[in-house]
Amino acid sequence: MSTEVRRVVIAGGGTAGWIAAAALSRQLGSLLEITLIESEQIGIVGVGESTVPPMRVFNKLLGIDEQEFMRACAATFKLGIWFENWRKPGDRYIHPFGRHGKPTWLCEFHHFWLRARELGFSAPLGEYCCEWAAANAGKFATSPQSEINFAYHIDAALYARFLRGLAERKGVRRIEGKISEVRKAADTGYIESLVLESGTVVAGDFFIDCTGFRGLLIEQALHTGFEDWSHWLPCDRAVAVQAESLKPPDPYTSAIAHEAGWRWVIPLQHRVGSGVVYCSRYMSDETARDKLVLSIQDKAIRPPFFLRFQPGRRRRAWNRNCVAFGLASGFIEPLESTSIHMIVSGVTRFMQLFPFDGVRQSLVDRYNEEARAEIEHIRDFVVLHYHATERDDTPFWRHCRSMEIPDSLARRMRLFQEAAHAWQADGELFRVDSWVAVMLGQGIVPKHYHPAARTLSDAELGNVMNSLRAQVSRTVAELPSHDAFVREYCRANSDVWERR
User: Are residues 215 and 339 in the same domain?
Assistant: First the structure.
């Protein structure tokens, strides 16, 4: 289609819609007329409250002041994820966001750590990582000079409201209403306008679908198709609750495995978000709800609410003159907190390939290739947690251990088991250190390591290991508690969440 794209219509608000609106208006607003349609009658999912470090880059792209953002969203800091019961009941490990030790150009640090283990060094790999040690100690601090890598825990509803303010100040027009009809051109099948229940017609040149699992534009109107991944990702439901916070917030997300899935704990300044993710084939809704209620020690702010989802992706995230972000484009599951990141990366990719002079198939194909590769890489990382386990105590975990996995993941696991080799390809979210932390944490023990680890004498290697570990210990010892730093750096006023 050769029609110039000037009028962009975003269907749906929430986190996805307002991320798109804020980014487009900030970067391309002088060239576009941006309209967002949302209805107060349609709630947002609102449980995507744990993020990954690239969100910090996105905030800088939007010119967001970190302290202002954190106060507005009652946010806390996140150094990684604390996993319990995944390898086997009673076992635990941390997936930190930092680097372990110091790598060489030939191989990563964990190869030297593996050799040191042969020599009798017993310290876990995490003790060579500041983020791991700080999370384990409940400490945190940041400054412009700090190299500590972190993400955030945020109130998703407050975040959407914060972004809405940014977008509207940049000229984004918001229309209240529910979409009743999607009108398409008879000859091309391209979307021409959206009709609201009020009768209002909103025309546009390009449309963004942020309508959640419904996929009102990308699926119901354009019939894009869906690739089901439930054979690799068996969990298909969640029940969530918000509760008062009665203890200082931890600087990490907790992911605690149970007999048919796992449970999350996300600490914010004003409350704790908790939820049980489960497979409906192995656990009933009632059992999941009871498990959640029994797990929370704090007073619930609202009753538990259920979510149903189908793991997988749209076959094309960009179809004709429509691109889908967030749940409308696909969903893996909450583990590893990637939902907001995929919205941000999708919006960024779209801006880089923006079809000012009209939709060209070359742009569409490139976008879809990159979107597919990204979500498949993330899918593999999440599947790893389920499949690489020693658990055989329930039918759910026996299924996860024996299920077939994507060939791409199988190759990664073999390379690590046989040669301790891990990598991060271009465009992948998870770094080498993330793959190493989770594979070791899930019980994959490499048989060999890189020969470069033997170039140091036993004494030299010992000195290096002791020095690096001591350096991490000194750095973390000087940090304040996470709670103390949050209260000083970005404490939110109570009216922030009372107005929510």
Answer: yes
